[in-house]
Each structure stands twice: as C-alpha cells, then as structure tokens.
Design goal:
Blueprint (H helix, E strand, L loop, with lengths): L9 E5 L4 E5 L4 E5 L7 E3 L10 E6 L5 E6 L6 E6 L3 E8 L11 E21 L2 H4 L4 E5 L2 E5 L4 E7 L11 E2 L5 E8 L3 E9 L9 H19 L9 H13 L1 E2 L4 E2 L5 E4 L7 E3 L3 E2 H14 L2 H17 L11 E2 L10 E2 L13 E2 L10 H15 L6 H17 L18 H21 L5 H18 L1 E2 L4 E2 L26 H13 L1 E2 L2 E2 L17 E2 H13 L3 H12 L11 E2 L5 E2 L5 H36 L3
Antiparallel strand pairs: 1-2, 2-3, 3-4, 5-9, 6-7, 7-8, 8-9, 9-14, 9-15, 10-11, 11-12, 12-15, 13-14, 16-17, 18-19, 20-21, 22-23, 24-25, 26-27, 28-29, 29-30
Helix pairs in contact: 3-13, 4-5, 4-6, 4-13, 5-6, 5-7, 6-8, 7-8, 8-9, 11-12, 11-13, 12-13
C-alpha cells in the first residue's frame, strides 16, 4: 500500500465471529482471526508497511471503482471500470455458526462482466501485528502462510487445467503475487482459510458460486425476521446487518467496532481499541433489537449479560466491569505497538484497552434497563439471576454517590458526572419495576429511598441555574450530550420546562449544523491532547430528543442531514471531522444502534403528527356541516 485510504472508503464483511475491511480500491487492509479481538493478519490500515495486506486491482493504471452490497446481504462487490472492460471483486465470509471456531473462510471472487480485464493480486500477511514471521509454501492448489501459531491457506478458484490464474510468484519476504486475466463471463478467485491445520485445495467456480448463494440466503432469511415497516427502511436494514456482523455468535456479545487505533483526530493520540464488548453499548442494543423485531439476538446477548451479572466480579469498580472480551474475559491489558506509525501518522497504536479498569457508574443502569426490556417481552431472569441483581443493587446503594470516570472514559481523574447518577437512578427504578411485576423478594424500602435521593441530588447539583440546563458534572456549567438520554429513560418528561431549557442550551453550544459534539474538551479537560469531531451517536440521540420534545420538523431535517454523512454503503464511524470526513473506529455499533432508535422514534412522531392532522381536518370539515 502506498497511501492510506479514507476510513469511510471501506466496506465490512464478516462471518459472525470476526470481520474484515475492504477498501474501495480492492485492498483488504484489516482482518483479525479467529475472533474480532485476536491478533491481526492484515492490518495495513494502521501501518502500510508493517501491517500486511491483500490487494486486488486491475493491471490498467487508469480505472475507476464503485462499491456496493448485494441487496439485503453482507456480500460486498467492488466494481472496476477500465478501458478494456468491467470487472468485479466479490468479497464475503460464509457464516461460521454459533460454536467458537478456529477456522474461518474469506472468499474473494473475481469475474469479468464486460469486455476483458486483468487483475494484479498480492497477498502479504503479517501475523500477530507484524511481530511473528511466517513461512510460505506453494503447491498446485494454492499456498500456505505458516507463522507457527496460525496458518493461512490460500485455495485457488479455477477450472482444472486452465491458465486464467497466472503462476504464483513468491517474494523474499514470503509474500505472494499473481495475475488473473478474464474474458466476459469468466469467474476465478481465491479462498483464504485460517486455522491451525488448514490446507489449500482447488475449488471449481461452481462451488464458489454455491458458497455465494448460501451466504446470500443466510442474510435474506435473517433480515426477513425484521418487523419494521416504517420510513428509512433501507438505512435501518443496513444498520441491522452491520450490528449482526459485529456480534460474536457463540456468546451473543456485541463489539463496539471491529477495528483498533483509528483516530478521533488524524495525527493525534486519541486512538483506542474497540474490539471488545462494552456493557453500555451492548445493553442499549437489547432495546434497539427488540424495536426492530430481532428478539433472538436480544435474547442471545441477555444470556451473556446475565453471566456477567451473576459472576459478581470483586474488582475495584464493583460487581461489573465496563467492558469484556467477547467470551466474557475481563483481561484487556493495554499496550502500544512499537514502531507502528498509525493511520496517517496517528500514533500511538494501542491494543487492549486501559479504560477497562475505570469506574463508570452508568453501566449498572444500562444493564438493568436491558434486563427490564427483555422481561417485558417474556424473557425474564431466573432466581439465581434475581439474587445476583439484588447483590448488585446492594453494592450500588452503598457506592453510587462517588466520583467516577464517566461514560466518555476520560483520563483526567474522577468527577461527579450527572449522567452516571442518572443511570444509577435507572438501575433502581427498573429493579423496583421487576420486583413489583413478579412479586420478587427485595429490599424495596431501600431501593425506593436511593433513587429518591439520586433524583433530588441531580435536581440540586446537576442543574445549573446560570446555564438553565442540566450539566455534565456537579458544580460546573459544561453541557454534555449524554444527558440527551434523560427523557428517553423516563427521568424527565420531554415537555418539562427544565428539559426544554436544557435542549435549547445544547442547540447553541453543542450543535454544529445538525452535528453534535459530546462536550467541549477545552471547557472540561479530559486528560488528553488534541481535539475531536462531532459524535455520530450524539447526533442521533439529538434527533430522538427533538422528536420526543415535539420539534418534529427539526428532528427530521437533522436526521436527513446526518444520513448524508454516511459512507457510500450506509456505514458510520464514531465521529465526523469538521471537513465532513469520517474519523474514529469503523463502523461503530453504538452509532448504528442510535440511528435505528432515532429513526423509529422519529417515524412514530411523524405518524402521530399525521394522524393528529387528519383528525383535526375531519373535525373542521364536520364543524362546517354539509355543503
């Protein structure tokens, strides 16, 4: 790779246990195996010389590219338009199933759809973030890249005896190159397979087409379970597929993003590893998946969440950690990849996540809200789980009134964040509702006293008379977009004058042409150098809040504007830079969750407004009497 592509110039493919990114130029520049959080095999996105890549591009120097998904699937098609013809690179990963597997397949099919076209193919893996050398072995069926711990088999897709796939040429570094020349209608390609004992084999094009058809059928069947039939259906379905791709099927855990180290400011130090499951993000997914009709996925995550609740880890941050690996392991030690330059010079490149040991009190509210949402659709928690919740609430009753690092994982010291207190209130509120609904034994008197105390404290200390708004932390005047959740969780009514005033304050301070900053780092230092973009999650939370507050026209315009910041496939990273460029890890689950929630809330508000207008019109016609 000579240059770094834009973060947004990528598509995502996956098999529900890991995922890969493919740039619009045809280069596969991010892939970890066997899991999302495993060491990388291709990671040129973070270091073009050390990371490794699998590039596929026309031999013609002059060409244009287009990229799309096959409708309603996670099958990615990159089209190359040359003077001699049009070719397609079809990338997909056959789904692996719900049992954890060391073996994963990645299919790269090449076909010529018009005229003729020749492709240059280069396979240059770099195992374990480039720290582990490999040995290359060639055969008539393909090649093996062997690092000792991990093997990557390359199997050729071709007809027996044909010469459309040129000879495989090995380099001194153990990389592989070949040329593929195709006429209209011809199809060839390769299948990559990772695992401890994989070996190459020849695949006929018919077998490759069968894998393609089976993968398409899986996605069509899965998406057909959606019950959503409102506006922006295509955008919501793409977000739903993206969330499915970011879910580790063996446990139901949702990773925040499939990538690590993509910067919140190009050239800056705000570069984090997001390949883990945050209690917060994943708990929000329960509500969103239920609203879309994907109850099975919500239930699968609930089992993972209940395991974390019943474990009752005795750590410095209480009975729940803020994040885990997809298998529930809480060990996420952070380290820096020495010598890696980072995406466009954004150093350091971190793997692991040092924020895992932070105290973030909001996660208890999000976890209990997820349990409550599942209970409402009949997926209740059993007696062992209920006793674990009681123990969790006992700890929270003793510990909610203390400084913390907060939702944004600041590294500038613990503070009394209003959002953390808000979600502690949610935890007690949902637990009381669960106890009442099922007649569960619980210390209801204490559970009632604690949320009352939290409510009164927020009203006294989380409200700034000077700003006429709820603020980020006690004793300060800084606004924070996380508080857009206040009406959504039921702490205040959307029509409450205090909330309306808060929303107006956010309009003027946090909103930039519909895009929303999470807070102002210069006014509330977070312990890190540099600036950041607007948070896409916060923009969709703003849409939701506007719609709930009755500002439906503003909500719709803001939502429609935000849709223009999606990439060519409808995917979003974590943030949007001042230039409109997508920055941060990509694609981000939290953003796509918030998009779905905002769209459904806005759709319902628009329907309500139309119904109200229709009823008003009928009443007016009736009042006029017959003509």
């Amino acid at each position: 790779m000579k240059e770094y592509p834009l973060i947004a110039d990528h598509g995502l493919i996956g098999d529900l246990q890991t995922a890969a990114l493919v740039a619009t130029g045809g280069t596969l520049d991010w892939f970890c195996s066997p899991r999302f959080d495993s060491p990388s095999i291709f990671a040129a996105l973070l270091d073009r010389s050390r990371g490794g890549h699998f590039s596929t591009r026309p031999l013609d120097k002059a060409f244009a590219t287009k990229q799309l998904y096959l409708p309603d699937t996670a099958i990615l098609v990159t089209r190359f338009l040359t003077e001699g013809g049009v070719g397609e690179l079809i990338d997909f990963m056959p789904t692996t199933g719900e049992s954890a597997s060391e073996q994963h397949r990645l299919v790269r099919m090449l076909r010529c759809v018009r005229g003729q076209i020749s492709f240059d193919v280069e396979v240059a893996p770099r195992f374990d973030y480039g720290r582990r050398p490999h040995r290359l072995s060639l055969s008539g069926e393909g090649a093996i890249f062997d690092s000792g711990e991990t093997r990557l088999a390359l199997s050729l897709i071709r007809e027996e005896g044909d010469e459309l796939l040129g000879p495989l040429v090995a380099s001194e570094e153990g990389d592989l190159r070949s040329t593929v020349s195709l006429q209209q209608g011809q199809l060839r390609g390769v299948v990559l397979e990772t695992g401890p004992d994989v070996a190459p084999r020849m695949l006929r094009p018919l077998e490759a087409r069968r894998m393609l058809d089976d993968t398409a059928h899986f996605w069509h069947d899965w998406l057909s379970r959606s019950t959503y039939a409102g506006r922006w259906r295509e955008e919501l379905q793409r977000s739903a597929i993206t969330l499915k791709l970011l879910t580790y099927a063996p446990t139901g855990a949702l990773v925040a993003a499939p990538t690590a180290g993509l910067p919140e400011q190009v050239g800056g130090e705000r570069n984090w590893d997001y390949r883990y499951t945050w209690i917060r993000d994943a708990s929000f997914s329960v509500h969103t998946l239920i609203r879309m009709g994907f109850a099975d996925e919500a239930a699968a995550f609930s089992r993972w969440l209940r395991d974390r609740i019943t474990e009752q880890l005795e750590s410095d941050t209480g009975p729940l950690n803020i994040m885990y690996r997809v298998d529930g392991n809480p060990e996420l030690q952070e380290e820096v990849l020495s010598g890696w330059e980072g995406y466009r010079g954004s150093y350091p490149v971190r793997i692991g996540n040092g924020a895992a040991g932070q105290l973030q009190l909001d996660i208890f509210g999000e976890a209990l809200d997820a349990v409550y949402s599942l209970d409402r659709i009949g997926d209740g928690i059993g007696q062992p789980g209920w006793m674990a919740i009681c123990e969790l609430l006992e700890w929270l009753a003793d510990n909610w009134d203390q400084p913390e690092e907060g939702i944004w994982e600041t590294r500038g010291g613990r503070k009394d964040f209003t959002y953390g207190r808000l979600m502690c209130w949610v935890a007690f509120d949902r637990a009381i509702r669960l106890a009442s609904a099922h007649g569960r034994p619980a210390p209801v008197a204490r559970w009632t006293a604690e949320p009352d105390a939290i409510y009164n404290q927020i009203m006294a200390k989380g409200w700034s008379a000077e700003r006429e708004a709820f603020v980020q932390q006690y004793g300060d005047t800084v606004l924070d977009a996380s508080l857009l959740k206040m009406p959504q969780v039921g702490f205040v009514a959307p029509s409450d004058p205090m909330w309306q005033s808060t929303l107006r304050a956010m309009d003027t301070e946090l909103v930039s042409d519909s895009l929303v900053y999470r807070y102002d780092p210069s006014a509330s230092p977070d312990g890190l150098r540099g600036s950041e973009g607007t948070f896409s999650l916060c923009t969709f939370l703003y849409v939701d809040a506007l719609a709930r507050a009755g500002r439906v026209d503003e909500a719709r315009l803001t939502f429609e504007k935000m849709l223009t910041y999606a990439n060519h496939l409808g995917l979003y990273s974590e943030e949007i830079a001042v230039t409109g460029e997508q920055i941060g890890n990509f694609p981000q689950a939290f953003t796509h969750l918030a998009l779905i929630d905002a769209a459904i809330t806005l759709n319902d508000s628009l329907d309500d407004a139309a119904d109200k207008g229709s009823r008003t019109g009928r009443a007016r016609r009736m009042s006029r009497g017959p003509r």
